[in-house]
Design goal:
This protein has one helix and 13 strands. It has one helix spanning about 10; strands at about 15-20, 25-35, 40-45, 60-65, 65, 75, 80-85, 90, 105, 115-120, 125-130, 140-145, 145-155.
């Protein structure tokens, strides 16, 4: 008989929502790196005067596809995709000045993380896609000084 396979919903449930609603944060940096045993994706935020001393509210869950606000499909590299929705944040400040000047489609050289791409930034809600070479469950932490949403993905299979 065939070996059992792990099902994405059973092995990687959605990450519980985190951060805090209220206020507004500008995204200042997005980076991807490899550490022994895991790949890391970091979203860093500036703290606007009305922002709380916590990362903005976020939701991280598996996704099968992505659609731009225009209704067009957005291709994301990788066999497995995670959606990172961040509420109360934007790549621009409240006056519309661009704060995040980095790429909106990162091409990481890590073995597990194949793509990190901005899907949407509309009315202080951002959606970023993370494409992985294979299914791995994220471990999420938040850090202060500066405010960061950190997503670690085990890469022991690589």
């Amino acid at each position: 008989s065939p070996a059992p396979t792990r099902t994405p919903t059973a092995s990687c449930p959605p990450v519980p929502a985190g951060g805090r609603a209220g206020g507004f944060h500008s995204l200042t940096d997005v980076r991807v790196g490899h550490q022994p045993g895991f790949d890391r994706v970091v979203f860093e935020f500036g703290q606007e005067t009305s922002a709380l001393d916590d990362v903005p509210l976020f939701h991280i869950e598996r996704a099968t596809s992505f659609t731009a606000i225009s209704g067009q499909p957005v291709a994301v590299q990788g066999a497995v995709h995670w959606s990172v929705r961040i509420e109360g944040a934007s790549i621009a400040d409240r006056n519309g000045n661009l704060v995040y000047k980095g790429p909106r489609d990162l091409d990481p050289t890590t073995t597990l993380v194949r793509d990190v791409k901005q899907i949407e930034d509309f009315e202080a809600q951002m959606i970023w896609a993370i494409g992985l070479a294979q299914l791995e469950c994220p471990r999420v932490t938040t850090l202060r000084s500066p405010l960061r949403l950190v997503i670690d993905l085990p890469s022991g299979g690589f």
